[in-house]
Design a protein that fits this description.
Chain lengths: 112, 114
């Protein structure tokens, strides 16, 4: 799995867009970018994933640069409930080891 | 309806005891996992089961023994509990194939060994 680099922490004002970056400069052509989050005292929650194209679902949008070396998770209108640790994971879908490798993630604090 | 459930939510026990944590998923998934999150919040895989068969057994002491009676259940039995076993244990499940990385996690079991 390609290594990822995320900022340790970020703040975002409630109601504003939260943009969480992830660098994955060694990503290979068949590796996807996955985003999870862990709200305090809860289990991790899958958010979104993508390969090349930008993706959007009811929770967030994922913007992947053209060279695929970095991506940004966007929470369009952050709420206090979005305060969590956000993990960016890069790996080949459905292949290799049956596990997710979680790094340290980004602690997002949404401020009233 | 809870997709992945774990029991108990909290477990406080003495060193040397044997305890079990149960996990059930009602998503129809074939693959289930146990993860451990330590006091520093690092989340690490312990075991993976696919169709009731062990796929991954990371460097985990053999005091930890997973049991999968059927595809919907993956229980974790721990013998001779030690202080260092104190952590939060998360069960997860996932669909097969290319969606395997979209894992669904349970609420966690907070184990405290005294």
């Amino acid at each position: 799995d390609a290594k990822t680099t995320q900022p340790t922490s970020m703040d975002c004002a409630e109601g504003r867009a939260a943009n969480l970056p992830c660098n994955h400069s060694t990503i290979s052509g068949n590796e996807y970018v996955y985003w999870y989050r862990q709200i305090h005292s809860q289990g991790p929650q899958y958010i979104i994933h993508g390969l090349k194209n930008n993706e959007t679902n009811e929770m967030a949008s994922l913007i992947i640069t053209e060279d695929r070396k970095s991506s940004t998770l966007i929470l369009p209108h952050a709420t206090l409930r979005d305060t969590a640790v956000y993990y960016c994971i890069v790996r080949v879908a459905g292949a290799g080891s049956y596990q997710l490798t979680f790094g340290k993630g980004t602690k997002l604090s949404v401020i009233p | 309806d809870t997709a992945v459930s774990q029991t108990p939510k909290y477990l406080v026990t003495q060193m040397g005891n044997d305890k079990s944590i149960k996990c059930e998923q009602n998503l129809g998934h074939d693959t289930m996992y146990w993860y451990k999150q330590d006091s520093k919040k690092f989340l690490k895989i312990m075991f993976s089961y696919n169709n009731k068969e062990l796929i991954i057994n990371e460097t985990v002491p053999n005091r930890f023994s997973p049991k999968s009676p059927d595809k919907a259940h993956l229980n974790l039995h721990i013998n001779s509990l030690e202080l260092g076993d104190s952590a939060v244990y998360f069960c997860a499940s996932s669909p097969p194939g290319s969606l395997r990385e979209t894992q669904y996690f349970g609420p966690g079991t907070r184990l405290l060994v005294l």
